[in-house]
User: What shape does this take?
Amino acid sequence: MAAVIPPPGEHLHDRKNLQLIGKARRRVDGRAKVTGQTKFADDLQFPRMAHCKLLRSRVPHAIIKNIDATRAAARPGVLLVLTGRDFPIPYGILPVSHDEFPLCNDRVRFVGDPVAAVIATDPLIAFEALDDIDVEYEPLRTFSDPEDSIQHSEPRIHEYADKGNLHKLVSLQFGDVAGGFADADHVFDDVFFYQGNTHLPIETHATVGTKDPDGKLTVYSSTQCPHYLHKATAKALDMDPAHIRIIACSNGGGFGGKSDVFNHEIVVARAALMLDRPVKICLTREEVFYCHRGRHPVTMRFKTGVKNDGTITALHVQSLLDGGAYGSYGVASTFYTGALQTVTYHIPKYRFDGCRAFTNKPPCGPKRGHGTPQSRFGQEIQLDKIAVKLGIDPAELRLRIIEQPNTLTANFLTVRTIGLRECVERVVRMSDWKNKYKKMPHGRGVGIACSSYLCGAGLSINWNEMPQSGVQLNLDRSGRVTAFCGATEIGQGSDDVLVACVAEILGIDPHDVRPVTGDTDLGPVDLGSYSSRVTLMMGNAAIQAAERARDLLAIAVAKKLEIPKERLVFANRKVFDCENPLKALSFRDAVCAAETMHGTIGTVGSYSPPKSPAKFKGGGVGPSPTYSYSAAVVEVEIDPRTGWLRVPRVWMAHDIGRALNPTLAIGQVQGSIYMGLGEALMEEQEFRRLPERLSNALVHKFPSMLEYKSPTTLETPEMYIELVEDPDPTGPFGAKEVGQGPLLPIMPAVANAVFDAIGVRIDEVPITPEKILKALDAKAKGKDPRFGPASFPSVPYPEPIIVTPPWEGGDGRAANEPEKKHRTEQNQGARNAAWHDAQKLMNEKSNPEGASR
Amino acid sequence: MPESNSLTKQHLHISMRLNGEPREVSFASYKTLLEVLREDCDLPGTKHGCELGECGACAVLLDGEPVLSCLIIGAECDGREVVTVEGLAKDGKLHPLQETFADCGAAQCGYCTPGFLVTAKALLDRCPNPSREQIKESLSGNLCRCTGYQQIFEAVEASIARIAACRVSGNSEVV
Ligand code: FES
Ligand code: FES
Assistant: This one.
C-alpha cells in the first residue's frame, strides 16, 4: 500500500495503485443527463421573461443606408427594438481582430449578419415584428471564394486585413529548405482541398440575459468559453467586468461551435439591462448555420523531399483558407494549418506559408482539431503516395520517421512523450493490416494515417502571465467538498475530471464532491473548453488544490492520532495509519479536526503551462504542454459501378497518457471517429449564388439538418479502440487529451483506403460517390487516376521569417525580425529559463535506434 | 400570415395522460406538442434541435409510439397518452435504460439523450430482445453528435438483460 502523501519527488503520473483514476465509472453528471434534468440554456425560465429575435441580412455584402424600425416598435407586445446604433463598440475573440459588432453598424458582410433585434413579450410576436423593419442597403461586390479575394482587393471586406481582402499572410522558414530538397532522392509535390463543414451540435445556441436584483448583469449561455464572453461583454457594453456574471450552461455539444462570442449573447445582455427583465434568445437551426465558425475550407500544397528509405529531408506547406466574413479565431486557424506537421514525424527543414482570405460567407473558426485536420489530411495522403512510390509499406514508413520523444522540433515545439510508435503497431496488429493491405479483393481496401494534437494551447489568447486554469476547494465539517472552477461542461466530461482528480487525492467518493463550474462569479478563471486544454490544465490545478487540502487535513489528523503525517493514507473515505489501518478517522472527522485546528478550510490550485522556447512572431501558435498521438486504420468497401462507399470497420489506437475514466475516453475516441467519417464522406458547408433576378446573393446550399448530411446509426462502423497509456509527466496523473486528436487521422485514412481498394486518389473531402466515379473514369481513360484540385493558386505570401532550427544552433529567435520592444527583464529571464529547459530536454533525449536520423 | 395577436390569444384546452398522470393544459393554439410540453407543462426534458423533424431530439411516446413532438400539434393530443423522459423513472428508480445509458457513456452532452431513451424504450416494449441491426434501424431517426452511437447501442443491449431481470423479479412497474 502506498502512502497517499507521496514522498517529495514521487510523481503522480507514475502512481500505480490509484483508487478512482483509470477505472471505468459512471460520470458524475450521468444521472442528470439520463433523467432530462441537465439544464441547458433554453431550459431556463424566469418570471417576466421577454424573448428576442434577430433580423439577419438577406444580402451578402452591402452598406446599410438606413434602418426604419418604427412600425416594428409600434406593434403590441414589442418591448424594444435595437440596431447597430445601440452598439458602437466592436469586439472579437482575438485581440488582433475586434471586427464584429453585436448588430451590424454600417455594413453587412454575409447573408445572416444580424442588423436588428426585436424583444417582445412572446417569441412569435418578436418574430413577426422582424417583417416590419425596413432596411435600405447599398449592395457591394461579393467575394465568393479566396481566389476571388486574391484577385480583387476592392471593396475591402475589412480595412484591417493584411492586404486587400487577404486577412492574414504569414511565412515562416526553419532551416535551409531549398538545401533539404536538393539532398532528397525524390521530391513530391501535391495539392489538396479540404471542404468546409460545420459543428452541428444538436443543441442550438441559446442565451438568457438578466438584470439582477442588485442591478448587475447575469448572462446564461450555451458557451464553451464563459471567460471570453465575460471579457467581450464588458468591452462591447462598456461595463465594469466585476459587475458581469457569465454562467455557461451545460452545452448540448460544442465541438468548437460555441467557443466564439456571438452577437446574440451581447444583444440579450444589453436588452435585459435596458428593460430590467430577463430576455431570452434561442437560435433556430438555420441561424446556427449562419453563426458557423466551423472548419475552414483549405486549399493546400505539400512539397516533401525524401530519401529512398523514406527519411524526410524537407517539407514546404502552403495553405489558403477561406475565412468567411469575420476574423473569429482565424489568425490562429491560419497558423494551425502549419504548426503541427513537425510533432509527428522528424522534419529537419520546414517552411510554412499561410493565407486567410475574407469572403462574404459565414465566418469560419475552430472546429474539433482547429486548423490541423486540413493539413493533416494532405500530409497523411502524401505519405501514402510516398510509401507507394518508394515501395515501403505505409505503416512501416511511418514507423521509420516518427519524431523522437523529448525533442525540440524545427519550429521550436517541445515534444515530450510520444506513444505514436505503439499506436501504429497496435492498429497494424488489431486490423490484421499485413494480411489486408494490398491483399483485399478489388473494391475493398484499408488505409492508415496518424496524427497528433495539442493538450491545451500553450499561449493564451490574451497574453498575460496569469494562470490559465484555477480551482478552488471548500470543505466543511459535514465532509462535503465543493470544487469551484471556471471550466465548462460541454459533454466531454470536464466536471467528471474535476471531481475525479479531487476525490482521488482526498481518498473520497466522487459523489462526495460537488462541482461548481462555468460560473465567472463563483469559480476562478479557466479559459474555456477549447484546444483540448481542460483535462490537463484544470486537472493539474485541481490536484494542486486537493493536495493542499489534504495537507491541512493531514497535519490535524496526525496530531490527533499521534503519528507522523507521512504515515497517513487517504482512501475509502478514511484517513488512516498505513502501519495500522485501524488507527483511523473518517474523512468527515478529519475535516472536523482540520477545521478545529486551522479554521475554515479552503484551498486553491492553479496551472500555467511551461513557457515556449519559440520567440519568433507566430511561434505562439502550436506550443502545448504535451501532445497526444493517434493512429487509425480504416477499411472501405466501394461499389465501382456506383462509387458508393461504405466504411465497415475502423481501428484506432490513441496515446492518451493515462485514461482518467476509460468510459469517457473511449466515448471521445468513438465520437471523433464518427465526426471524422462525417467529414470524410458527406459533410460540407456549400454555398450557391441566387440568380441575378433574386439578388445574386451568396447563400447556403444547405442551411438545414436534413440537407446537411451527417452520419446516422446506420452508417456507424464497427470501431475497435485501444488506449495507449504511457503516463506523461506534464498531465494530471499522466493524462493527455482525447477529445480532438482521434478525429484527425480518419479523413486521410479513408482516402488512403480508397486508393488501396480501387487505385484512385481522392485528394479532397468529402469523398463522395461522384468524385470516386470521376476518378475511376479518369483512370479508365488513361489519365491521372485522381480527383482533386489541379493546381495551387498564386498567393502573394510575404518574405519568410527565418528561424534556425535547434539542431543548427538556433535559439528560437528569428534572424530577420526586429527584436520586440518592452520586454521586461523578468520576461526575458523566464524565456531564457524556458530555453534552457528545452535544451536540457534535447540533451537528455535518448536515441537508441536512431532509426530516422 | 394571420395576425399574431389572434393566434397567440386563441387558447386551447386539452386533457391527456402525461407521464402516467391525468393532466389538463391550455395553450396557444398554434403550439406543437414540443412547445406545450416545454413551455406549458413545465417539462423541459424533451429537447429540440431543428423543430423540423430532422434530428429526433424531441421524440416522445404518444400512445406508446415514438413521435417527433415538434411535428405534432398540441391540439392533436387531447385524450391521448404522452410519455416524456421525465416519465421514465418510477418510484424513485431509474428505468433500466436510464441506468445503462449513464453507465455505458451513452450520454455525453445529454442533449439527444431524452429522444434516444424514449425511442429505445418503444423498441424494447415492442421487441424485448432486438439485434444490433434492429437497434440501429429503430434509432436511425435520432441524431447524436457526441457519441458516435456505439455506446448508445451498448447501453440498449445492456438494458435488455436488466429489463428481463426486472420482469422475472416481478418488478414490472419499472419497465
Ligand atoms: S426538434 Fe423535432 S426532430 Fe428536431
Ligand atoms: S450525447 Fe451529445 S448529442 Fe448525443
Observations:
- Chain A touches chain B through 60 residues (CB under 8 Å).
